Amino acid sequence: MFVFAAIVLSGLTAFPLETELDFVARHSSHLPAAVADWMEHVRDGVHNTNSVYPFIMYGIDWLAFAHIVIALLFIGPYMDPLRNKWVIDWGITCCVLVFPLALIAGPVRGIPFFHQLVDCSFGFFGFFPLFIIRRKIRKLEKLMS
Length: 145
Known about the structure:
By secondary structure, the chain is mainly α. Helices cover 83% and strands 0% of the residues. It is elongated and about 60 Å long.
């Protein structure tokens, strides 16, 4: 359920993106200078984009929705782990693929390295609970055979 909750929470935080970025900018004095500068740059970009092209933020809404829909997949292994172990394998694969996406697309899009590492942390911290669940499913398979 940790993976389910983490993905849902991640999705829900995308809806109030401007409000969250305003909050971070107001409290940026507590952050390292490079992080504070980056967060203010992101806030300005989101504000400027939304003021001129608000339909772009609709894509953010769909991103949030996709997180919630993806999280629903993880109910299957909770209810029937043997039958739905493919969801765990798929989740592990997605976690691994976070790294090349962040480390290839990040520099292309001008994302600072520290933020690429933040993005990689989602794959890192998602991988381990899924790996543990996968091992438990393998043990359950052996017990059932």
